[in-house]
Amino acid sequence: MPQYKAPLRDMSFVMNEVLDYPSHFAKLPSAELTTPDTVEAILAECAKFCEEVLSPLNQTGDAEGCTFEGGDVQTPKGFKQAYDQFCQGGWQGLSHPEEYGGQGLPLSLSVFKSEMIGTANWSWGMYPGLSLGAMNTIFMHGTDEQKNLYLPKMVEGSWAGTMCLTEPQCGTDLGQVKTKAEPNADGSYAISGTKIFISSGEHDLTENIIHIVLARLPDAPAGTKGISLFIVPKFTSDAQGNNLQRNAVTCGSLEHKMGIRASATCVMNFDKATGYLIGPPNKGLECMFTFMNSARVGTSLQGLGAAELSYQGALPYAKERLSMRSLSGKKAPDKVADPIICHGDVRRMLLTQKAFAEGGRAMVYYAAKYADFMLYGKTQEEKDEADDQLGFLTPILKAFLTETGLEAANLGMQVYGGHGYIKEWGMEQIVRDTRIATLYEGTTGIQALDLLGRKVLLGKMKTLKAFTFEVQKFCKDKGLISGNPHKKEMNRFIWPLLKYTTNWQQYSVRLALRARKNFDAVGCASYDYLMYSGYVSMAYFWAMMAQTAYEKLAAGTDQPEFYKAKIQTAEFYFERLLPRAKAHAECMMASPKSLMKMKEEHFSFL
User: Fold this and answer.
1) 464: Cβ contacts below 8 Å, ≥ 6 apart
2) Dihedral angle at the C-alpha atoms of 136, 138, 144, 146, nearest 10 degrees?
3) Most buried pick, 228, 344, 494, 568, via CB within 10 A?
4) Which of 308, 263, 233 is nearest to 83 (CA)?
């Protein structure tokens, strides 16, 4: 199994050199706590925990899995000890308010932390990761009483959290939710129903688990407009947070999964369990989007992490494995064969992994700035604008990065050849663990509909225009009419980027016009539209990284090879990966007829 090594140098490059996080942090209330030295120390300490504690548990946790007996779930050996160490380090409350016991640091720092945790051991990271979304939901929509009761315990990590949406009869279509919420005399509610696919629904890591549950009030209208949100604790508690008695919420079984086997995915039964309304009645889905958007951005990190970890496993193997001779002549004449990294196709796979991992990191870190401003913007207008832009980027991050992360994980297996299929090497586990990332928190198809249908077309292209105008300004400043001393070198990136970005705007307008006549045009084009958006977005960040690398080399540096590798990876991305966007453009602009005209009975003649 690849032993994870936190890519601190690359993280620093993206944060400090490309995206100028020191200036960003200086604009936030926690400026005095986020000096470059402090941030570096925090990330280094987190990296140590991930490398020394979490990474060694990744393969053993997969082999052992979770065990279920009598409604109780036991996590694999070492998970509880690692969680206790995590809580003692104050990591859970890193980006939560000091008034609830947190450290009050920016949300973006929590994203950097979560990247390292998720890459080192995704299954383990899901336990505290789901809690973050529950905490954010309570913080944004709970009453003062609810915040004071639940957040201190959740921030310290002694209580965990979940999101309970899906039911046996419905997945993404939450309008079919049947779980009931009957009013009690004391103002609480009796919650009854069954939820499935509940990550961290039951486990032995914490004293209590706080479930965030979608359910219907007796007089609720049908569909999504009649869903409310409730807090349902595993143990009820008094005002001081002391656990009183077991609530009527139980784990019925564990799901037997392809991957993330050390993460407890549960069927949860609510039998008139005591619950408490959070947010307005019948507005639960709107409140839940706080949780869902947190989870979706978090899920994008799994795609990034899969590309990174698989690359970390494939690269040393490609350097050591001997097979055949290079087509251009012997590269290791003193050995029986050349290392496979000498072969063009192996380099194609490694560079694809590298480009997706490092490009994805830049995309996520860029979006994390908006998350900070969404909470700490100086005006409501600034907060709303950040929320809108993050909402636009979220489906691209979630879907594109998980799709490319899965591709990178498969390429890592392929580099190993037959050995990649054998469990002891650990490469196949990355594929199994990553496969779920394109499915949960909304499949790629759902994210694509959200992007094209809701964010672009219904949003009248406001957020799309804001992002593409930023890209076009970069092209102007760095290549077209600028005094950029690296203009000559950069134009090989600038001109294609400008063309793809301009086409992105034009395709969006054409699809909007087509959708007026045929609503199926949106669904038929949405997947390819999202993938096109992802490839062009990543190209923007690779162009930014190339520009930064040229500047650093010109200024003089003691790490010239690091910056040369950035430029060479950007060249590979623009020449070998960005052209995929052309095929997606052809598909998304094709007529919907070839998808929609076939009659259902013609799909099969069995």
Assistant:
1) 392, 455, 456, 504, 505, 508
2) -140
3) 228
4) 263
Q: Could you say which DSSP state residue 443 is in?
A: -
Q: Are 34 and 28 in contact (CB under 8 A)?
A: yes
pLDDT confidence band for 414 (50 / 70 / 90) = very high
Whole-angstrom distance, CA of residue 427 vs CA of residue 228: 42
Q: Which residues pair with 247 in a beta bridge?
A: none
In degrees, rounded to 5, the angle at the alpha carbon of residue 304 between the alpha carbons of residues 81 and 542 is: 145
Distance in angstroms (rounded) separating the CA atoms of residues 587 and 348: 25
Sign of CA dihedral 494, 496, 500, 502: positive
**What number is the average pLDDT over the span 471-483?**
86
Two tokens at 70?
């009598």
- Work out whether strand 208-215 and strand 159-164 pair parallel, antiparallel, or are unpaired: parallel
The set of catalytic residues is 441
How far is residue 119's CA from residue 7's CA, in Å, rounded to a whole number? 10
Residue 469 has pLDDT above 70, yes or no: yes
Question: pTM of this prediction?
Answer: 0.96
CB 196 within 8 A of CB 171: no
| Helix, strand, or coil (residue 305) | helix
Average pLDDT over residues 279-290: 86
Q: Are 430 and 310 in contact (CB under 8 A)?
A: yes
H or E segment and range at residue 60: helix 55-64
